[in-house]
Design a protein that fits this description.
nine-stranded mixed beta sheet, 17 strands, 27% helix, globular
């Protein structure tokens, strides 16, 4: 898929423009310095038409990320929520990945630029499973990467900021070059953090463990899965997790808006659950896929119909 070749409309600074016309200048400040914030949001087909999952939570986090980097978004939350629904509807999408992003323009250059305008775009397109349907069903193999290690003091880990993902791209490249599907990133104390773009969970003796959010993004899918697990009466602990803990665990999985709930069946050369998705993982995964499609009344408040 070549993104620039897609057809449709993109919401750009308050107006709908043709996909091919949604362009910026090569001297756009965020292109050079990574000073942008963004969200990944999904809409799913339901019996009542497409519905956006946890729209308000995603938009609220966009504003929180902007605040953390000192950016003032020139629209309010309702305008951006309405615009996200609009791009799904006008592009006739039953299922959609939605990308809101706020960035500084080309009004100035250099770190001291003080005349920068905040621009906002929202695009939506049909995008299937991030890691592939087969991987969602049968699981993935991950590599514990030596690079990079994360420190609570060295990154704005609570901001979903463009610049943060340089680390993720390098870790993923390392894993892919080694024949794995994803990376598992550690902190400076060698505790497990997350994947390149996913939160991490492991299951030991029917207890679900996930890293503390000191150096990981407190993902919205992460929060959703923790709620599902607790509603199923599983114990969920936010704690330090060593690589040895993971390799001797009963099950493991990633979560994220793009990755959804993806089983992990191997870490380095060690198989998890004999190389098969675990039963608890599959149970949580099924409820997640049902609720995002409006099949679980208990969680229907998380859906915004388009």
């Amino acid at each position: 898929m070549i993104m620039s070749d897609l057809k449709g409309k993109i919401w750009m600074d308050g107006k709908l423009v043709e996909w091919s016309d949604a362009k910026i200048h090569v001297l756009t400040h965020t292109l050079h310095y990574g000073t942008g914030v963004f969200e990944g949001v999904r809409a799913y087909e339901t019996s009542d038409g497409p519905a956006i999952f946890r729209l308000e939570d995603h938009t609220n986090r966009l504003f929180e990320s902007a605040k953390l980097i000192g950016m003032q978004i020139p629209y309010d939350a309702k305008e951006l929520n309405d615009a996200q629904s609009q791009v799904v509807k006008i592009n006739n999408l039953k299922n959609a990945y939605i990308r809101p992003m706020c960035f500084y323009g080309s009004e100035g250059m250099g770190l001291r630029a003080d005349n920068l305008k905040v621009h906002t775009i929202i695009a939506a397109w049909d995008w299937g499973s991030y890691l592939g349907d087969d991987k969602i069903l049968n699981g993935i193999k991950v590599k514990v990467t030596d690079f990079p290690k994360r420190s609570e003091k060295s990154m704005l880990h609570k901001a979903k900021a463009s610049g943060n993902y340089l680390y993720s791209m390098l870790a993923l490249k390392d894993a892919l070059n080694s024949g794995y599907d994803e990376a598992l990133i550690l902190d400076i104390d060698d505790n497990v953090n997350e994947g390149s773009g996913e939160n991490f969970f492991t299951i030991i003796n029917n207890t679900i463990h996930t890293p503390k959010d000191a150096t990981v993004l407190n993902g919205i899918t992460r929060q959703t899965v923790m709620k599902i697990a607790r509603d199923l009466n599983y114990r969920v602990e936010e704690t330090n997790i060593s690589v040895d803990d993971v390799k001797s665990s009963d099950e493991a999985f990633f979560t994220g808006t793009a990755a959804e709930v993806t089983p992990i069946i191997q870490v380095d050369n060690v198989k998890i659950n004999d190389g098969k998705p675990g039963e608890i993982t599959k149970k949580i995964q099924k409820i997640y896929f049902d609720l995002i499609r409006g099949k679980v009344d208990e969680y229907s408040s998380w859906l915004t119909q388009v």
